Amino acid sequence: MADVTLTTLQGLKQKGEKIVMLTCYDATFAKTASEAGVEMLLIGDSLGMVLQGHDSTLPVSVEEMAYHTACVKRGNRGAMIVTDLPFMANATIEQTLNNSAALMKAGAHMIKVEGTAWLAESIRLLAERGIPVCAHMGLTPQAVNIFGGYKVQGRQEAQAQQMVEDAKALEAAGAALLLLECVPSELAARITQAVSVPVIGIGAGSETDGQVLVLHDMLGLSLSGRTPKFVKNFMAEHGDIAKAIAAYVAAVKAVEFPAAEHGFSA
Ligand code: KIV
């Protein structure tokens, strides 16, 4: 695969071809996933849960994110590498800039931050300094203690309208990508129409510009024994990791995944 850049992603959005993102935390999976056609590898702070066994993403450090980013970089074959800024790593502007720089130096091509319109100033500063930013909205797991659990966001019209406005504000601030987690499918479609940057969804229906899943979820592996509604186990039919990842890529490209049953209504 030729190196995936922001221009590639914009081209895919314009063509109406879905973008495929998958979480990834090490070199071997990075090689396997990028060779299977995954265009974006996300070093998500979900690693705190699926690799480290914590019950939330909050304990993850910048050093751990940098370590896994460097591992993924060594195995990657052309995908764009996106790394999460973990909990409180963007508590101040100075921390945002220094921690983002550390993750870019470790191998990230883009930084992902969780939040709403309050992120605008830091997104602007990062973009001005050459760091592309993905703004993660909707169910942002770092705010699980504010939400009172992992709950669908944007079900009330007032909250939905606010999310549309926030998405436009973050695009105007310079966000290169938006990611929507656990929002009603019709709201995700509305936001995707309202902005010109690509929008990736997880639990957000099929009308976003692309999809992401947590690697362990789509391979049918679960520490808690609970599988979110928006997950499909691609190992069940394929029994081989490389084939399961290739099937995920094909299903997203063919708009067969996610199906209606993986989405949420308002
Ligand atoms: O940390 C992560 O893996 C994520 C995805 C669930 C989008 O943010």
TrEMBL record:
The entry's keywords: Cytoplasm, Magnesium, Metal-binding, Methyltransferase, Pantothenate biosynthesis, Transferase
Keyword Nucleotide-binding: no
Family designation: Belongs to the PanB family.
Binding site for 3-methyl-2-oxobutanoate: D45, S46, D84, K112
Highest taxon, organism lineage: Bacteria
Pathway where it operates: Cofactor biosynthesis; (R)-pantothenate biosynthesis; (R)-pantoate from 3-methyl-2-oxobutanoate: step 1/2
Protein name: 3-methyl-2-oxobutanoate hydroxymethyltransferase
Active-site residues (renumbered): E181
Subunit composition and interactions: Homodecamer; pentamer of dimers.
E.C. no: 2.1.2.11
GO molecular function: 3-methyl-2-oxobutanoate hydroxymethyltransferase activity; magnesium ion binding; methyltransferase activity
Cited PANTHER family: 3-METHYL-2-OXOBUTANOATE HYDROXYMETHYLTRANSFERASE
CDD domains in alphabetical order: KPHMT-like
Cofactor binding summary note: Binds 1 Mg(2+) ion per subunit.
Needed co-factor(s): Mg(2+)
Entry function: Catalyzes the reversible reaction in which hydroxymethyl group from 5,10-methylenetetrahydrofolate is transferred onto alpha-ketoisovalerate to form ketopantoate.
TM stretches of this protein: none
A biological process term (GO) from this entry: pantothenate biosynthetic process
Lineage of the species this protein comes from: Bacteria, Pseudomonadati, Pseudomonadota, Gammaproteobacteria, Pseudomonadales
